[in-house]
Amino acid sequence: MARPKCTINNLKVFQANIRLTLEEQILIESLAQTYGLSVVEYVRKRALNKQLPKHAMSPINRELLIELSRIGNNVNQLAKKSNQNFLGKYVFNRDLRELKDILNQIKTELLE
Q: What is the model's pLDDT at position 55?
């Protein structure tokens, strides 16, 4: 299936070139990476006074948060399977709640 066509108002046909020093380029790249944006997206949002993502974090913390989310998804899948199979449901659910609390604490610490 093809991508829907953009309206004429949504096409990005104009280009603005700027010159930066090496230090400015490095700073902009690191800020963009902190927000999880490309340099172009970061500069566009800042130039147009659009809102940046709510939580700025280092690339290492971002990768850790993504991995924690994947773990959380796996835990949810295990919980669903446990609820479908009633063997050991109560013990599993207790352990699952403890694990979920730990994951939430880690996420809270990362976002602060």
A: 67
Cα maximum dimension of the chain: 65
Phi and psi dihedrals of 85, rounded to 5? -115, 115
Q: What pTM, to 2 d.p., does this model score?
A: 0.49
Q: List b or e across 27-66, with b for residues whose CB sees 16 or more CB atoms inside 10 angstroms.
A: ebeebbbbbbbeeeebbebeeeeeebeeeebeeeebeebe
Can you tell me the distance from the alpha carbon of 16 to that of 23, in angstroms, rounded to the nearest whole number? 20
3-state secondary structure of 49: coil
**E-strand stretches of 1-112:** none
Whole-angstrom distance, CA of residue 15 vs CA of residue 17: 6
Rounded to 5 degrees, what angle do the CA atoms 63, 66, 69 make?
A: 150
The structure tokens listed for 73 are 């998804």
